[in-house]
Amino acid sequence: MVLESLFNPFTVKKRPWEMFIAGFAYSIIGLLLSYFVFRDSAGLLMVFLIVLATLPLLYTTIKNEEELDLKYDKEIKLLKEHTKVLIFLIFLFLGITVALALAYVVLPGEMTTSIFSVQHQAIGKVNASIQGNMIKLDLFSRVFFNNLKVLFFCIIFSFLYGTGAIFILTWNASVVAAAIGNLFKTEIAQVASSVGFPSVTAYLGIASISFFRYMTHGLLEMASYFTAGLAGGIISIALIKHNLENDKVLVDALDLILISLGLLLLAGLVEVYITPALFA
Fold it and tell me: Helix (H) and strand (E) counts for the chain?
């Protein structure tokens, strides 16, 4: 197929920035196709089409990582190789998020409402669950355990489908993009109502605030989810190839899960204690 052949899975670890381009292109194509073909279900179909384009690349990558478990004896070498995969997956996530956030901002309001209606509902549920004057510790507990559920499903989806975690992560990217786009439009409207037509500097400043308001902790969350998804994918492929008898595979997967938990804990601390202080 055309889209999946645009990027070489055997060289992408050396040029991870290409995954930003891939995520951006896959997202724009998926968004337009979903809107013009299945407008009533555009929000979910858009996520499905993006995932469909990324699956061959991700499957090949995870398969290669599982093979490295049998090749390397030292865990530190394996973790270095996994880090390269994590970096290009983060670039993929950023490409998807930036493309969808940009589309949210520049497309007509009626069109974005139709495309991102399901994402708006998800944002509303999240806001409702954490609203009110909660003390920091309670808020951290709620945020962490909510993210822990997502982490668990990333492992399960990857174990069952090999690359299944990419669906959850693409869905999260679409929700984050809708939140970023909505914040950008809200801030621009406030500036326009108070000082008139916003300048280029105002646009850039608000765009930066909108992006980092969610990405300060969001990148850590995504790194955690990708790491857990990689662990689940490695176990899945090892099970298919009957390589689970090798202890190195299970040890590597367990290390990845423990690392993902550490990243998730750090992400929760940043979201509750640092992000509000920076963007109050």
Answer: 10, 0
CA-to-CA separations, 150 to 4, 5, 108, 109, 153, in angstroms, rounded: 27, 30, 32, 30, 5
DSSP classification of residue 244: T
Residue with tokens 């899960």: 257
* DSSP calls for 148-201: HHHHHHHHHHHHHHSSTHHHHHHHHHHHHHHHHHHHHHHHHHHHHHHHSSPPHH
Share of the chain above pLDDT 90, in %: 22
Distance CA 228, CA 15 (A): 23
- pLDDT score for 25: 92
Which DSSP letter does residue 86 get?
Answer: H
Amino acid 2: pLDDT: 57
Mean pLDDT of the chain: 82
Cα distances (Å, whole numbers) of residue 97 to 44, 93, 277? 15, 6, 24
CB of 214 closer than 8 Å to CB of 176? yes
Please tell me the pTM assigned to this model.
0.87
Residue 260 contacts residue 227 (beta carbons within 8 Å): yes
User: Residue 209: is it exposed, middle or buried by C-beta count within 10 angstroms (0-12/13-18/19+)?
Assistant: middle
